[in-house]
Design brief:
single chain, mainly beta, Lipocalin, Jelly Rolls, eight-stranded antiparallel sheet
């Protein structure tokens, strides 16, 4: 239990908003995210994203004299509720998280940037991010593990679960086109700036959800299920300007100029104001990618 004394006189409006968090865990610093908003005139509610998983609703957030406190049930890991307690001081959050597996982790946080941009963008010519011959321009997400990604006949192949693959170059706003194919039941994802996952998963014939094919994982739900059957080549065209994202899947606009609230589970970091790479998820299932091209503002 975090015990603090606060001399600040703060009101609920001071904690309302979106927060980018860094969490100290046993093997490093991991990104997390919090949103606090009003429900009616008195109650506070919110959403929380841990270092993995999707955004989870918070039924009630307590905030008094600069101290924030809430609990949420476990999602995938552990059996216990997650408990979050922190102190807001001079615009920064610091505190501890008792996670669902009993871990005691310190965190620090700052307000997430709004990333407001002009929507009048002139795009340059497409640039290939994958040369079809080797992994030049890409790196592993974990240098301590074997990189299982290979190249075969112009196709980038993830033959088994392992590390994620990341572009060495980082980007701000862009238009990305990418083709992919997966076997039945497989799962991957494309992380924009390394922080926002567009789900790649075998969901043919299902109702659309934010955690399924074409969704911004846990946040934005496609307007239709545009997935083809497993084994067929498919295509995304993704435009990201600030927080605004549009996704065309197999020729159908399934997300149209929507705002991404914050980072999704599995993000590389929580530094939303900084450029970031394209990351291909390789720690879930078999997947192939090809024809990966990006357009940048002129």
């Amino acid at each position: 239990m975090l015990i603090v004394m606060s001399v600040n006189i703060l009101v609920s409006q001071d904690i309302v908003g979106k927060w980018d968090l860094d969490v100290e865990m046993d093997n490093g610093i991991f990104p997390s995210w919090l949103e606090v908003k009003k429900s009616g005139t008195k109650a506070l509610v919110g959403y929380f994203v841990a270092h993995n998983g999707s955004a989870r609703p918070i039924s009630e957030v307590f905030f008094h004299n600069g101290i924030i406190d809430f609990s949420i049930p476990p999602q995938f890991d552990g059996l216990n509720d997650l408990h979050f307690q922190g102190v807001l001081n001079q615009g920064k959050l610091n505190g501890v998280i008792l996670d669902s597996q009993g871990g005691f982790n310190k965190f620090s946080g700052v307000r997430a940037p709004k990333l407001i941009r002009s929507m009048n963008v002139n795009w340059g010519n497409p640039i290939s991010l994958f040369n079809g011959n080797n992994l030049k321009g890409w790196k592993s997400s974990d240098l301590k593990m074997k990189n299982q990604w290979t190249v075969k006949k112009g196709v980038l192949l993830n033959p088994e679960s392992g590390v994620n693959l990341i572009t060495e170059e980082k980007f701000e706003d862009f238009k990305l086109s990418i083709e992919f194919r997966y076997p039945k039941g497989s799962n991957s994802g494309i992380y924009l700036r390394g922080r926002y996952e567009v789900q790649v998963e075998d969901n043919y014939g299902l109702e659309p959800e934010s955690t399924l094919f074409g969704g911004i994982y846990g946040f934005l739900k496609p307007n239709q299920m545009a997935a083809k059957p497993a084994g067929e080549w498919q295509r995304y065209e993704i435009t990201l300007i600030g927080r605004r994202v549009s996704v065309i899947a197999n020729g159908k606009k399934i997300i149209n100029d929507q705002i991404i609230p914050g980072i999704t589970g599995g993000a590389l970091d929580s530094k939303e104001g900084m450029p970031g790479p394209i990351m291909l998820q390789g720690d879930h299932g078999i997947v192939e990618y090809r024809n990966i091209k990006i357009q940048l503002p002129n």
